[in-house]
Structure formats: C-alpha cells, structure tokens
Amino acid sequence: MKRKNMNNPPLIIIMGPTACGKSSLAMKLADRIPAEILSTDSMQVYQRMNIGTAKPSDKAREKVKHHMIDILDIRDRIDIYFYVEKAKAAIKDILSKKKIPVLAGGSGLYIKSILYGLDPLPSDPELRLQLVNRYTDKNEELREQVKKTDILAYRKFKDNPRKLLRALEVFNITGKSITLQQEQWNKQELKFNVNSYNIQIDRKTLFKNITLRTEQMLRKGWIDETERLVKNGLLETPTARQAIGYFIIAEYLNGRITYEQMEARIISSTKKYARRQETWFRHQHPETVNLSQGTDYLKKIINDFEKSSELSNSE
Description:
Number of helices: 14
Structural class: alpha/beta
Order of helices and strands: EHEHEHEHHHHHHEHHHHEH
Number of strands: 6
Shape: globular
Distance between the termini: 21 Å
C-alpha cells in the first residue's frame, strides 16, 4: 500500500461493524474540528428509509452537515460507480470550504473504492445472466466448476454461491483467478491523504449493542416505516429492498411470522452482517489503524489529525 503525499489535510475515515458507534464518534469529532460528515452507508442514500438504516437524527444533521444521505428515491438503483462519483464530489466540496471530510459508515466496498479507486475487475452482463441461469439451485455443481477453473477462489468462496458466480464470470472473461486480480487492486495507491480507523469491540459487547439497537428501532416506529414503504413498492425496488430488516418486517406485517420471530431474525441477520464487516475491514484496508476497546477513540483521532495537519502544512 502506497500513501499519496498531498498538501490537503487528511480525510478522516471511521469504519467498523454496525452498532459499534461510528456515527456518534463522527459527531463528537465534528464538535472538535471544522468537519462535515460523509455517510459511507449504502442504504442511507434512500429517502424515507430512516429508522431501519439508523440515519443521523434531524438534530444531528442540523448541527453538522451530512453528505450522501437522502439523495435517491427508493425506486432508484444504487451502484458503486454512481456512489463513488457523488462521494468524490462531496469530498471536493467539503475541502473547498476548508473543512475536514469525516467519512463514517460500514459499507466496506464503497469505502475502499473511494480510497483506492474502483475495482478493476471486468464484468459481462450477458455472461453473468447465462451463469445465473445455468447454476441457479445447483450450488454443488457451481462449486465443482469453480474448483476446476479457479482453485484459489474455490477455497476462499466455497460457501458463498454469489461470489463463486462472480469468480467464474471473471475467470471466463480474463482466464485469470479473481483472487490474484483482487490482490493487484489491494496494491493500488491511495487516492487521498487519509487517517483511517477501524473500531474493534468484542463480540459480546457488539452483539449486545445490536440487540438493544434493534429493540429501540422497533419501538421508535420501524414497523410503521416499513408498512409505508412497502405500500410504495419497497419490495419491488432494485436495491433499496436489500436493506437489512425491512423484508423480515414485511413478513411480520403479512402475518407469516410472530413479533418475537421477526425481532430474532433481524438481530440474527444483523449479527451475520457485522461478522462479514469485521472480516472485510480486517483484510481490505492496510491503511487503517485499529482502535481496540478501551482506547480513547476521540483523543487518538484528534492527536493524529493535529500531527498530520502540521506535517501537511510543513510540506
């Protein structure tokens, strides 16, 4: 990993699993330095999806300007290319005002694509459709095919059919392993001067946070929010419907599961997502400083920022 030398003060990146306190830390930081916050949550871009995506409150957004929130209708598709271009424009806008962009959120691929550029791996929609049609409900056959063509990808993704399909697509286009090509992406140069942090807390505490937050979100009106969104076509949308929890609540609203089953399934799904986030942030961000539990996160970030700013000003 190479770091770009730039005269601009560093972007501050706060990443970590859901419910670890990223948004709260970003707000505390904005109280101490001239900052604006850029959400790196792929679902907070959608209007009216407020409780279920844990958006910052109206009060917080009045106090500190937030970017990449409420920019799309639920019927719009979000893709990484659109997101990165919008995020880069927001960063440029924040810097032009002599403020510090604080990027906070848990969508790992989106964060990495802002910092290092877009994943260079090719795609072919027609080939992808052929592979989907060929291997739908044939996971074992898919595993065997990837095992024959790309043993590295098989070992890494053997329990993830979606990623196995992507590996097969890339191999058919390039004749090379997706894992080797991803390693080349990992060696790309940072596009920005950054101070990047990964919040790490123990699983027991994290899972307790997830349970408590889910209970609070349901009490605050997540079910009513979901009912309104479903009536407006949420379950037929291209990407908004993928947000955790909404489909499960829709099952409850349709009488297919009990309240207790709904709550348990949301908590379980969120815990699984948190584990995937932990794995991503542990392996995909060599520029990142890990903030372990017990660290004074705010003090550490501010001290690093002051040192980096002094260094930038002296260059």
